[in-house]
Amino acid sequence: MVADGLFDGALGVLLLTLATAVLHARQLYTSVVLLIAFGLLLALTWARLGAPDLALAEAAIGAGLTGALLLSALARCGEAPPGPSRAPPLRVLPATLLALLVGIVLLRALWPLAEGPVLLPALALGQLPAAGVDHPVTAVLLNYRAWDTLLELVVLMLALLGVRQLHSAKQVIPPPWPLLLAWTRMLAPLALLVGGYVLWRGAFAPGGAFQAGALLAAGAVILRLNHLLPPVRWDNGLVRLLVVLGLGVFLAVGVVGLVGPGLGFGPVGTAWLAYPPALAGPLILTIEAAATLSIATTLTLLVVGEPEELRA
Amino acid sequence: MTLFYLCIGGGLFVLGLHSLLLRPHWLRAIMAINIMGSGVFMVMVALARRGDTTDPVLHALVVTGLVIAVSATAFALRLASGLLERTKKPEGGA
């Protein structure tokens, strides 16, 4: 019990300290590196809080891809010009006051929640036999709240389209050093293997499309940064297909479910995104596989897609 | 323990907000928004373990949120660096 308390305490203090360091370090480069460490610690926290799905996603997305994004943005723009290291007190004082007030309001709002009624888990677990998968988080993502996931894929695509519209400086990727090259050759197939495994596992244990997609994207980003992968070009038909595949399959399942019974397609679905229990498992796995490929391609393009490649 | 992590989540949010109010460099502002988001996620994950079983709905929402956060970050970074470039050499035009 004491050890648990110590662990939680250390984790909490470390998180707050790292966040402060990220926000107030003098050099931007230090901040970015510390933010990556913060993301890894956050993944540990999710594991501690009983959320292995989140720990997987955070380690790949929060620490890996966000870090790569920030580092490449920093490389494009350069370190900030050395200005006054401290903000003027005239700005610090009101900001601190306001932050404190917001903190007090938040604390008062969060306090009663800790003891609030808990209704959702029972509902979610009660319907699990009809959901088609055994892992409750996957069931929520792909079955109960499929709308959320569908719209999330739309948001991902919108972000990619937005990035495509913006012209930005070409990112010069330096030639890789030998050790990095050797590591990449070992890590990339492993990322592919683990990605596929995590996707398959999502049906009955922590894992799923998002984690798998993020892992695949991380593998592709490493390969691309070491010049082992040809540029991911937007004018390549396959790339475009992969980007829209997840959304397309998801929409197709929804539409067939909506109009299928009327047209005599049999029991493919009963309503918009409502799967019949017998087919729910295979349908969810199909959607997940397509979504994984889309997420991986989109994230890769977001991180390492170069301007002329994206615009082509 | 739920209450402890709720407080840490709130603390992260407040730290990020405070830094954002100081009008930092744009890269740091994006990092501050990321940290605020992490605070919100932590509140949700802490709330997910209130009952006897962990709440899969909140976990699923956070998984969705993580992916949205990284795509928003990518867009924000491109937007900011594009803006920077355009202000640096105005003769470049649109």
Could you describe the 3D structure shown?
The complex is a heterodimer of chains A (312) and B (94). Chain A is mainly α. Chain A is built from twelve helices and no strands. In chain B, helix 1 packs antiparallel against helix 2 and helix 2 packs antiparallel against helix 3. Chain B is elongated and about 55 Å long. At the A-B interface, helix 1, helix 2, helix 3, helix 4 and helix 5 of A face helix 1, helix 2 and helix 3 of B.
What would the CATH topology of chain B be?
A: Helix Hairpins
Helix content of chain B: over 70%
State the end-to-end CA separation of chain B: 53 Å
3D shape of chain B: elongated
Total helical segments of chain A: 12
Number of strands of chain A: 0
Q: Name the pair of protein chains with the most residues at their interface, and give those residue counts.
A: A-B, 91 and 73 residues
Give the fraction of residues assigned to helices of chain A. Answer: over 70%
Tell me which CATH architecture of chain B applies here. Answer: Orthogonal Bundle
The structure class of chain B reads: mainly alpha
Query: Helix-strand pattern of chain A, N to C?
Result: HHHHHHHHHHHH
Q: What amount of the residues of chain B lies in strands? A: under 5%
Number of strands of chain B: 0
SSE arrangement of chain B, N to C: HHH
Separation, N- and C-terminal Cα atoms of chain A? 59 Å
Mean pLDDT of chain A: 84
What structural class do helix, strand and pairing data of chain A support?
A: mainly alpha
CATH classification class of chain B: Mainly Alpha
Poorly predicted spans of chain A: none
Low-confidence stretches of chain B: none
Draw up the topology in text.
The complex is a heterodimer of chains A (312) and B (94).
Chain A: H1 2-24, H2 28-48, H3 52-77, H4 89-110, H5 120-126, H6 136-144, H7 146-165, H8 178-201, H9 209-225, H10 237-263, H11 277-304, H12 307-311
Chain B: H1 2-21, H2 26-48, H3 56-88
Could you give a short description of this structure?
By secondary structure, chain A is mostly helical. Chain A contains twelve helices and no strands.
